[in-house]
Amino acid sequence: MSTATSYQVFWLPSGSGSQQVQNSSATSYTATVGASGTYEYVVLACNAGGCGPESAPVTETVVFPPASAPTLTVSQPSLYSDTVDFSWTSVATATAYQLEYSKDQSTWTQIVDINELSTTYAPGTGLFYFEVRACNAGGCGPWSAVKSLTVVDK
Q: What CATH number does the domain containing 96 carry?
């Protein structure tokens, strides 16, 4: 049976001393962090007689999705090809990019999910809309501006 009446939670930032982030009877702690990174915490159980030893450190890695959208460039196919060239700008923290197309801007189909900054695709003929977004382990960021392209039959 535990005799603890309060718990002290300490954040252990890299390269500096500990920082107390909670001192209450709560048996859980929810951290609000502002940046991706690795966070380490220890807990002390306390009562009127003082506090016990520190817990083993708990480490949590937080990865936020990319904050911005890439800029998409779509090249008109050459006179003798139905292949469209796509490229986009790099986004900080991105590990992959998802490119998709639509014929009506309501139903979208993914073309690729790659860690490259360009690809080619032969969509067929007609009017197409394209967009790309950057992703990482934390999720995906916002979509780029939509680019349209009409591909004619060769």
A: 2.60.40.10
Say which amino acid occupies 81. S
Question: For the whole prediction, is pTM greater than 0.70?
Answer: yes
65-104: pLDDT as tens digits: 999 999 999 998 876 777 899 999 999 999 999 999 999 9
67 is a domain residue = no
**Same structural domain for residues 45 and 94?**
no
Please choose, from the candidates 151, 86, 91, the residue with its C-alpha nearest in 3D space to the C-alpha of residue 112: 86
Residues 147 and 80 placed together within one structural domain of the fold = yes
Structure tokens at 1: 């049976």
Number of helices (H) and strands (E) in the chain: give both, helices first. 0, 13
Cβ(151)–Cβ(125) under 8 Å? yes
Reported in sequence order, the residue ranges of 48-152 that DSSP labels E, i.e. its strands, are 50-51, 58-62, 72-75, 84-88, 96-102, 109-114, 118-121, 126-136, 139-143, 147-151
- Given a contact cutoff of 8 angstroms between Cβ atoms, the answer to whether 68 and 132 are in contact is no
